[in-house]
Specification:
By secondary structure, this protein is an alpha/beta fold. The chain has helices at residues 23-31, 47-52, 74-95, 111-122, 136-144, 164-171, 186-196, and strands at residues 7-12, 34-39, 61-65, 97-102, 127-131, 155-159, 176-180, 203-206, 214-217, 231-234. α3 crosses α4 and α6 runs parallel beside α7. The N and C termini lie far apart (54 Å).
Length: 246
């Protein structure tokens, strides 16, 4: 098969609950010649892989190590990325259509973005597509009853991997603020909420849709670290009047 006939499809499989994979996502997974799932170098089964296995037999799933837990050794991380890109490129040449499963949405802080850039260089003419997925903030809003936006309110999404200072700046502004990947900085996040007066209505959650799911008010944020993929919603300050922001 020629390179130009191959397709790489980034499929968002949602935050963990297999029922939150879209029909289009399931069809893309089942229609691909092979489904790639990212795994850490520890070999443990990730959330994307666990979700995919609800819909695709294990013999059509290929695990590719992305060293997602490497944050200090840049050379090692880049070497892992290069090896992963080469492996996916081989699969594209051998199989034709490769679906890459990513938690959440492939266009929101996703591993897929970097993979697609690498593959475009390695496999000239490859077709790259994405299938959107339910995001953690949507799932947390549904499960907690938090309303993400009303009327003209803005919505700010902040990855706390950039540090709690960025989150504090966002909390001082208007609208709803959502924080991703804040588990290791839970103490700093709690302090930022207190200092900006945003603790009362805020909610955080982890392992959404899974047996170990935890959803709590932000006032319960303790001093210890939380799971890395924890999500926080700090709703906009609202006056309580129905339709007040319309």
């Amino acid at each position: 098969m020629s390179d130009s006939g191959s397709r790489l499809i980034g499929v968002g499989v949602g935050p963990g609950d297999p029922e939150l994979v879209t029909v289009k996502g399931v069809n893309a997974l089942r229609g691909a010649d092979v489904v790639v799932v990212p795994v850490m170098d520890t070999g443990e089964r990730g959330r994307a892989e666990a979700t995919v296995l609800h819909y695709v037999p294990e013999d059509r799933v290929v695990r590719v190590v992305f060293a997602l837990n490497e944050r200090t050794d840049r050379a090692r991380r880049e070497a892992a990325w290069d090896a992963a890109g080469q492996r996916v490129a081989e699969l594209l040449r051998e199989r034709g259509t490769v679906a890459f499963a990513t938690i959440g949405d492939p266009n929101v802080y996703s591993t897929f973005t970097y993979l697609a850039q690498t593959i475009a260089e390695l496999v000239p003419g490859v077709g790259v597509e994405t299938v959107p997925g339910i995001t953690a903030m949507q799932d947390l809003a549904a499960r907690s009853g938090a309303v993400l936006t009303e009327g003209t309110e803005p919505l700010t999404l902040v990855p706390v991997t950039a540090g709690a200072a960025v989150l504090k700046d966002a909390l001082a502004g208007p609208g709803t603020v959502v924080a991703y990947k804040f588990g290791r900085l839970a103490h700093e996040v709690a302090a930022a909420l207190r200092e900006t007066g945003r603790t009362e209505d805020a909610v955080w959650g982890s392992a959404l849709g899974l047996p170990e799911e935890s959803i709590r008010g932000a006032e319960e944020l303790g001093d210890g670290p939380l799971p890395y993929l924890s999500t926080l919603i700090a709703p906009a300050r609202r006056d309580g009047g129905r339709g007040g922001k319309l």
